[in-house]
Design goal:
The chain has two helices and no strands. With about 70 residues, it is mainly α.
Length: about 70
């Protein structure tokens, strides 16, 4: 669940930044911006999934660490 959450949050952030850059710097029509953002919203999560999984595992390791076992 954490990797999916990281993927969704990153995708939303990337779409927001791309929207601002596209509208401010390029300034094309809203239909072109919407079409580009839809394509980005479909392609980016698929391409970023493995990276979000590794980010989540690194975060989980930092928070919880490795399990401690007794040497009984």
């Amino acid at each position: 669940m954490g990797a999916i959450l990281a993927n969704i949050l990153t995708t939303e952030f990337v779409i927001l930044v791309a929207c601002f850059i596209w509208l401010i710097l390029i300034g094309s029509s809203y239909e072109a911006v919407l079409a580009g953002l839809i394509i980005l919203g479909l392609v980016f999560p698929v391409a970023f999934y493995h990276h979000s999984w590794s980010f989540w595992l690194a975060f989980d390791y930092l928070v919880e660490g490795l399990p401690k076992y007794d040497k009984a």
